[in-house]
Each structure stands twice: as structure tokens, then as C-alpha cells.
Write a structure and sequence with these properties.
mainly beta; Immunoglobulin-like; four-stranded antiparallel sheet; three-stranded antiparallel sheet
Length: about 140
């Protein structure tokens, strides 16, 4: 009986260990992304067309019943020498009291060059501390 109890104990321990694994990261197409308190997913796209129109499109999805507000600050900057300078008129702030927010913003860029879209998602809710997530995407036109 002692051997049977040892095997049973080992099997129960293995099952317990398997179900107690707590993930701390989620795999995405872009690598490893940490879980957030109030944010489920963000998607950010920055394009510049052949006529020099820069467009930033984003979506931010929180959790129904948890996320209480989303603020998204978007700006486009141009590389000038070794410094980034904000493009005049290329700054927008969107807010939502829902668990989902999506929008796009576009502007005629002043000249050819290297540009960067900077998008900061601030997502509050009852899931824990407010999430502040910044995405930066560079494009050359």
C-alpha cells in the first residue's frame, strides 16, 4: 500500500502543479507582451501615402465591467537632425468612458522625411493601477 500511496501522491501533486501555473505574459505577433490591469488589446497603425498624408489609426479594448475610461493621446513628430520635433497641428486627444475606443487622425505632412507616430493609451478601471501604454512607429516618406 505504501507504494500505491506514493504514486497517488505524486500524480495529485503533478495535477496540482499543472493547474496552479499563473501566466504573466501573453504571446502576440510582435513578441511577448505583458498583461495589463485594465487593457485587453491595443492596435496602432501609422501610414504615409504617396501624397504625404500621414494617418494614425488605433483601437484600444479594455474589459467590460472593469475598464472605466480610456484616454488616447496621439502625435506625429518629424526627425530634424538628431531630434524629434512635433508636427504643427498633429496632436489629438480622444477619450471614452466605455471599455472600447477607436479612431483615426490624418494630416498633410510638411515635407519628405522621417516621421514617428507616438500614441499613449491611458486606461483606468477596477482591475488595478491605471495602465499607461506607449507605442511608437517610424515611417520614412
Amino acid at each position: 500500500m505504501k507504494l500505491g500511496n506514493k504514486i497517488l501522491s505524486f500524480v495529485m501533486l503533478a495535477i496540482l502543479m499543472a493547474v496552479m501555473v499563473v501566466p504573466t505574459f501573453a504571446a502576440t505577433g510582435n513578441g511577448i507582451t505583458p498583461f495589463y490591469n485594465n487593457t485587453g488589446t491595443t492596435e496602432t497603425i501609422f501610414t504615409i501615402d504617396e501624397d504625404g498624408v500621414g494617418m494614425v489609426t488605433y483601437t484600444c479594448r479594455g474589459y467590460r465591467g472593469i475598464t472605466t475610461s480610456i484616454t488616447v493621446e496621439t502625435r506625429i513628430e518629424r526627425l530634424s537632425g538628431s531630434s524629434w520635433v512635433q508636427v504643427e497641428g498633429a496632436s489629438w486627444t480622444d477619450t471614452s468612458t466605455l471599455y472600447y475606443c477607436a479612431s483615426d487622425h490624418s494630416i498633410q505632412l510638411p515635407a519628405r522625411g522621417t516621421y514617428k507616430a507616438v500614441i499613449t493609451y491611458t486606461v483606468a478601471g477596477s482591475g488595478g493601477a491605471t495602465d499607461v501604454i506607449t507605442r511608437e512607429i517610424e515611417k520614412t516618406y
